[in-house]
Amino acid sequence: MNRSIVRMLLGLMTLLLAGCGFKMQGATPMPFDSLAITIPQNSQFGADLRRAIRAASPGIVIIEPSAAQSGVKTVPQAKLEQVSEFRNSRIVSLNARGKPEEFELTLVYTFRLVNAKNQIILPETTLAAARSMPFDERVVQAKEGEAVTLFRDMQKSLIPRMMRRLTAPDIKQRWDVLKDSSPAEQENIETATPIQAPAENLPTPWQIPSLTPLPIPVNPGG
User: What residue numbers bound the domain in which 161 lies?
Assistant: First the structure.
């Protein structure tokens, strides 16, 4: 009797949630079967993104740039390309001695999605993230390490935002349009200019903006 009541209550809750427009969140597969990714796979960001893509599309085949370099002929149906990544730090407050007391770290990341013919599925899309970081000039090295951690955290925060965009309904719609277009229509479809893939091994210090900027004269030319 108790089990019947529980089942009935669960059924009522399901109906109520459905009536409110609630939908259980699940994996939304991408419309293509193979994908090349130019984002370095040996970075934490690249590795996390690949895991997220495989989780959303378990059947997808990810083709790495290294396959083409090794002479293996693989033609992916689509390509996820890193267009740019910009990191910046700026002073947002000073202490009583005029020294930096707080920094704002920002990460601006741009990516796009094209098919094998470089026809645009998703145009260049820019995402941004920011973090505040208290600063102490007595422990600069420790603060630089903290900045590395914060930039890594910002990169991680971009992944679910990227996945929402890559698995949005309009991506499948655009893919279907490109796939089903006639040869005459193909001639009028916009294509993206090929870009050079980012370096696989970019030294970490080069990725982090300096937290010790050069002093600015109070009265330049005075």
Answer: 29-195
Give the count of domains, the chain: 1
Q: What is the b/e burial string over 175-211, where b = at least 16 CB atoms within 10 angstroms of the residue's CB?
A: beebeeeeeeeeeeeeebeeeebbeeeeeeeeebbeb
- In this prediction the pTM is 0.74
Please list the rounded mean pLDDT of every run of 10 residues in the chain (222 residues): 54 51 56 94 92 94 73 82 92 82 90 95 96 78 83 94 96 94 88 75 51 47 44
Query: Does residue 71 lie in a domain region?
Result: yes
With respect to residue 8, please indicate whether it lies within any of the assigned structural domains: no
* Residue where the block lists tokens 């349009």: 177
Q: Using the 8-state DSSP alphabet, how is residue 137 labeled?
A: G
- The CATH number linked to 164 is 3.30.160.150
